[in-house]
Amino acid sequence: MDEHTARLEATVNHIQSDVTEMKSDIRRLDAKIDAQRGDLSAKIDQQRVELTAKIDQQRIELTAKMDQHRSELSEKMDQHRTELSEKMDQHRTELGEKVDKLATEMRQSHSSLCAEIKEWNKVISDVKVWRWIDRTWALIVGGAILSVMARAFKWI
């Protein structure tokens, strides 16, 4: 058993030396990682600052372009609004004149139509009078003929 124990002790010593080396390697790597972390953190912060500056610059440029386009479009819209308003006023005036002219023509047509209707009413009333005169004359002639016939046949 002593031999077995001696082999185990040698193996354990070997394992202990390996663990000691691993610890020293880990410490050394830990220092390197901390240094890399600091470097990367500084680079990330630098990149963040640079990108933030670029984004702010782009925002300023885009805002300026948007304001410029907004003002250009506003001017164009105002110009078109003015042109359309002028055209609408012109058309409104033209249509107003045409409507007034049409109203005048219709009043004249109405007046002449009323005059014609009055004339026709007079003609119709004259025709009615002459029809009465004709009927009366026909009755008188018919009565005279009957009277002559009645005397001829000695009815009276």
Topology:
Blueprint: H1 2-152
- The total of beta strands comes to 0
Q: What is the first-to-last residue Cα distance?
A: 192 Å
Show unreliable segments: none
Number of helices: 1
Portion of residues in helices?
Answer: over 70%
What would you call the structural class? mainly alpha
Shape: rod-shaped
The largest pleated sheet is described as:
none
Return Rg in Å. Answer: 63 Å
The portion of residues forming beta strands comes to under 5%
The average pLDDT score comes to 88
User: H/E order of the elements?
Assistant: H
Describe what this molecule looks like in 3D.
This protein is mainly α. 97% of the residues lie in helices and 0% in strands. It contains one helix and no strands. It has one helix at 2-152. The longest helix is centred in the middle third of the chain and has 151 residues, at 2-152. The radius of gyration is 63 Å and the shape is rod-shaped.
Entry keywords:
156 residues; mainly alpha; 1 helix; rod-shaped
